[in-house]
Amino acid sequence: MSSWSKDDGPILRIERVTVDFFVRTSFFSTKPIHAVTDVSLDVTKGETVALVGESGSGKTTLGRATLHLVPITGGRIIFEGTDVGDLRGKELMSFRQRAQAIFQDPFSSLSPYMRVGQLVEEPLVIHGPKSGSERDQRVIEALEMVKLSPATELIDKYPHTLSGGQRQRVSIARAMILRPDYIVADEPVSMIDASSRAEILYLLSELQERDALTFLYITHDLASARHFADRIAVMYAGRIVELATAPQLVEDAKHPYSQALLAAVPEPDPANRLRSRPVVGGEPPDAGALPAGCAFHPRCPVAIKGTCEVIVPPLIQLSDGHEVACHLYPAAGASYVGGADSAGASDAGGDEGSAEAAAEARSASMTSSAASNPGSAASVKSSQSESIAISGVTP
Ligand code: SF4
């Protein structure tokens, strides 16, 4: 464990990172797939930042890029003040030891031919002590740390004899046995049953508190992100479109996409069983042919015609510390870019506060329009985007 403290600055700094993959389209040509585009994010030691978004939003690729597992096309990943792209030899081995991953699927990430003890010991064989007895002791400690007991009985079992929750605990023990500082938890609870999810998240929280771990928590589930994360970054088509503290984002989401994700979170209340919830229609865009301007504009019910399909909105900071990439929210001092015919926009002017209020009024119209039409599928036409519909779903 390193001596890096909060006073030393962010433990992880993602600086304008871009990740492109290239697919061959013919013998002589390739086509770029834009998985992550121009993402910047600072993570403080001991903090949990959740990356939230649909499949294909680039969250897993970004998480892997921070572990130096996928090559980046542009930008830099700085870990404890050092560019991980410059690490070689022993320094790279040391980084691998201190930056670990917990993968989504404990059914495929654990070799079915290895016993639990061997699986947990494997990282130590590469990075840890040479003494077998010392390694055995560390394996028992790691299994007990993740509350798999009696550890002495479990070490001889094969993964297929364990439940999904137990397998994920073995994965966590594998990650924790090297005493890391930074963990990328990639959908760690999405493949296990509901009863074990909360236990695994509580376990991760306990370990974080004990060892001041830093987490990048990757999930499509905003409900778990709001309980586990300190801050939430919402990703869409490879970019961060909103970044805020977890309570801020859940209670006061600004970006239309974040609002749609929140609207889709089921509420465990029988009174809501017949209530329609507004969700955004359409599919995420093809990363090989992203729409011009804001990539969300073909699905956005409040898109500003003439602006959103042309200009990529930058991520700007609002007065409450929220960061959002949407033309509804102009940067401080900039004039409002929307048309005067939209809800609440005509009086926005160039003042940031009133522009934010107007933007929220426009953005809220998406939710209120659908909410005013409960029952069957609600088709909503906003004043700005005639062709985009929000379909209501019944949980
Ligand atoms: Fe994107 Fe425009 Fe909709 Fe904002 S209003 S999310 S910039 S399409």
- Molecular shape: globular
What top-tier CATH class of the largest domain fits best? Alpha Beta
CATH topology of the largest domain: Rossmann fold
What's the structural domain tally? 2
What would you note in describing this structure?
- The protein is α/β, with parallel strands linked by helices and 395 residues long.
- It folds into 2 domains: 10-236, 3-Layer(aba) Sandwich (Rossmann fold); 253-387, no CATH class.
- 30% of the residues lie in helices and 20% in strands.
- The chain contains 11 helices and 14 strands.
- The protein has helices spanning 59-66, 89-98, 116-127, 132-145, 151-154, 164-176, 194-211, 222-228, 246-251, 256-263, 352-371; strands at residues 12-24, 30-43, 48-52, 74-79, 82-83, 99-102, 182-186, 214-219, 231-236, 239-245, 277-280, 316-317, 323-324, 390-393.
- Strand 4 and strand 5 (82-83) form a beta hairpin.
- Helix 3 packs across helix 4, helix 3 packs parallel to helix 6 and helix 6 (164-176) runs parallel beside helix 7.
- The longest helix has 20 residues, at 352-371.
- The protein starts with 11 loop residues before the first strand and ends with a strand.
- The structure holds iron/sulfur cluster.
- Iron/sulfur cluster (SF4) binds at residues 255-256, 294, 296-297, 300, 302-304, 308, 313, 326-328.
